[in-house]
Specification:
About 40% of the residues lie in helices and about 15% in strands. It is built from 13 helices and 14 strands. Helix 1 packs across helix 2, helix 5 (about 195-205) packs parallel to helix 7 and helix 6 runs parallel beside helix 7. The radius of gyration is 21 Å and the shape is globular. The N and C termini lie close together (about 10 Å). Bound molecules: 1,4-dihydronicotinamide adenine dinucleotide (NAI). 1,4-dihydronicotinamide adenine dinucleotide binds near residues 282 and 284.
Length: about 400
């Protein structure tokens, strides 16, 4: 909602990048991107899946893709929880996730599906209570799946009020390698400092499984989980190249904690509801969260180059729709020895990784544009914010007054 009472002008909205953070989003570009993702799902097949879904982190990338796949692939009614902001001034014209929530709901309602958005802190007790009350009183049935797709820099512990910050650091040794500055379209040497024990523990507190388990337990105690209920959290393992700053670093520790949590919840869910808890190890994709992971943009740009050449490049909607249709609700589940589901197997194919490593080893500030698909990484990043979407008139002035009355 706007904090300003002034009449808002009509403005042309242009991309604004500060390093790898987007400071502007185009509402109608986001609308067009939602429609493109829905069209992708419709073209790529329906599946027998859940009828009632709760998605935490539903407003962008993997969470949004999950919501679109479940709604338009399986005709699921959905509840989405996210942390987003609408128009607050002529310069602050709302986050991409704000517009995604609005336009997803509009499209779902046209298809006669319920799409309820909750905006606020998913880590809080208040949000859990509100969602539970909504399921009990208005949603029209218990939930069949909880998708946990939050990526957050901080978490307030609901019991103590203490604030924890997550960080993306290595463990043990410092790591030094090239990363990409999307704003300047340059690569630079980035240093990843080793984390302290406290930083590791704090990252686990934010990005580990504690809040996921709180959600599942509270939903279960409230009696709003259906027979056969499933829950899934998205993890990343990646190849050896990304290990020092990802799976072997602070985020990796948090994901290990989430996996332990999943094993525990799986037993309970099997016993009580004939359900399951799974870890879906997902591929590296361009998102608000991944663009600020140190060093990852160079790896991802090299990966895209090779995956495109091999015809297996995927955006979040492609990856998640395949995951739900073929694996979670299909007959082509790929498990690893730890029992994780592995749709990331395309990324990790030996031939693909051999070529990616060859590229990453050769990258310099002079040749990275030729060697990698940094153009695709950049384009996908802009598209997350509603820019560079075919058919959108970016010269046209957007009527902010008209837009500010739209609510999620
Ligand atoms: P994203 O930044 O695009 O989305 C994060 C979502 O969480 C947004 O909907 C945001 O509004 C919501 N959110 C953040 N803090 C919140 C809060 N306190 N309360 C309510 N909502 C909140 O992130 P992305 O990349 O889609 O990540 C989702 C999950 O997928 C993460 O767990 C990430 O580790 C995992 N993953 C991501 C990969 C990637 O390459 N991007 C690869 C493999 C796993």
């Amino acid at each position: 909602m706007t904090t300003t009472e002034q009449t808002l002008p009509k403005v042309a909205i242009r991309p604004v990048l500060k390093g790898n953070i987007a400071r502007a989003a185009h509402p109608y570009g986001c609308e067009a991107a939602i429609k493109e993702q829905i069209a992708y799902v419709k073209e790529n097949g329906k599946f027998e899946g859940p009828k009632k879904a709760l998605i935490l982190g539903a407003s962008s990338s993997y969470g949004l893709a999950s919501r679109i796949s479940l709604a338009f692939g399986a005709d699921a009614d959905t509840i989405g929880v996210s942390f987003e902001r609408g128009i607050t001034s002529p310069e602050q014209t709302g986050t991409a996730g704000w517009w995604n929530n609005i336009f997803f709901r509009q499209e779902a309602e046209k298809a006669e599906l319920t799409a309820k958005n909750f905006i606020g802190d998913a880590f809080s007790k208040k949000m859990k209570d509100e969602v539970i009350q909504y399921i009990k009183n208005e949603f029209g049935g218990k939930i069949d799946i909880l998708v946990y797709s939050l990526a957050s820099p901080k978490r307030i512990d609901p019991k103590t009020g203490d604030v924890y910050s997550s960080c993306i650091k290595s463990i043990g040794d410092e790591v030094k390698d090239y990363s990409i500055n999307l704003e300047k379209q340059e690569i630079f040497e980035q240093v990843v400092e080793p984390a302290t024990e406290q930083e590791i523990a704090d990252t686990v507190k934010v990005m580990g499984g504690e809040d996921w388990e709180l959600w599942v337990n509270e939903l279960m105690e409230a009696g709003v989980l259906a027979e056969g209920f499933k829950t899934v959290l998205y993890s990343y393992l990646g190849p050896e190249i990304t290990r020092p700053f990802y799976s072997g670093g602070t985020l990796g520790r948090a994901k290990e904690h989430a996996a332990e949590t999943s094993n525990r919840m799986d037993k309970v869910l099997k016993e009580k509801l004939g359900g399951e808890s799974v870890i879906c190890v997902s591929k590296a994709v361009t998102t608000k969260a991944s663009a600020v992971i140190p060093i990852l943009p160079v790896y991802a740009s090299a990966l895209y180059k090779v995956m495109i050449e091999n015809g297996v490049h995927e955006t979040p909607i492609m990856h998640k729709h395949r995951f739900f249709m073929d694996m979670l609700y299909g007959s082509k589940r790929e498990y690893d020895e730890k029992g994780y589901l592995r749709p990331d197997s395309w990324e990790l194919r030996e031939d693909i990784q051999a070529k990616v490593k060859e590229i990453v080893d050769q990258v310099t500030p002079e040749n990275f544009r030729d060697l990698t698909a940094v153009n695709i990484f950049t384009k996908e990043f802009l598209q997350l914010n509603g820019f560079e979407i075919a058919g959108v008139d970016y010269e046209a002035e957007v009527d902010l007054e008209e837009l500010r009355v739209l609510l999620p």
